[in-house]
């Protein structure tokens, strides 16, 4: 049974562009994979502690040597890694904050990029451990337009970062959908149906 991991991170609730579009992606994916399963993760509703010294000590030592504090620090990470590795495909809906990912997405990434779990170190070589054939789509909403060829494209550090970190752990089949100029919608310069129409078409084609 194919599995899609559907992740949202925007705090804007029903007003969120990335949430609307990631939901369209998940619905279209389910339509194309009737025997498939969608697992949903809302990072706003997930308690995501930042990496600390107990987490680091546990991540870089054998489980049988973990202190109770280290085991507790890794518990959420263990759950998130298992959830992540069970998925054949990932769709992440996220805003862009200050040209990069919001804090909850970075915290989630720090929990799933784990030595011995999603990557390994052999001598001086680093190798991703995520099984081949996995795919990821990133739907990035932003107030301005950061599409390639535009005057602000060089400020988009989120798209290359997401692709780079997923490539690092072994997912090289990635796609970015940029939902830029969202400020025009919030400022009433364009109707939502007109703003979303081309983006929905792009999302459906990607699902």
Structural class: alpha/beta
Any idea what the CATH superfamily is called?
Answer: Flavodoxin domain
For the record, the CATH class is Alpha Beta
Total discrete domains? 1
Strands of the widest sheet, in order across it, are 2-1-3-6-7
- Write the CATH architecture name: 3-Layer(aba) Sandwich
Largest sheet: 5 strands, parallel
Element pattern in H and E: EHEHHEHEEEHEHH
Strand content: 15-25%
Total helical elements: 7
How far apart are the first and last residues' alpha carbons, in Å? Answer: 17 Å
Counted beta strands: 7
Please compute the radius of gyration using only Cα atoms: 18 Å
Query: Which regions have little confidence, pLDDT < 50, spanning 5+ residues?
Result: none
CATH topology: Rossmann fold
- Summed over residues and divided by their number, the pLDDT gives a mean of 96
